[in-house]
Specification:
single chain; about 70 residues
Length: about 70
Amino acid sequence: MPKPATQLTASEQRIMHILIQGKTNKAIAHMLHTTEGTIESSLHRIYGKLNVDNRVSATLAYLALEPTARS
């Protein structure tokens, strides 16, 4: 069972808010003024917390747990 999205850090939640817009890792990195490697590492942690293994599953799990993330 997925863990509550509230266990994501503020940074991880920012990444998820951008990810659900369909942005690439490169675009997310650019928007957050960081590197693609940092985003990849963050996504790996997010996947673990949400108990998923890809960005589509992460998006679906996050939206199910955080309905306010849709805006």
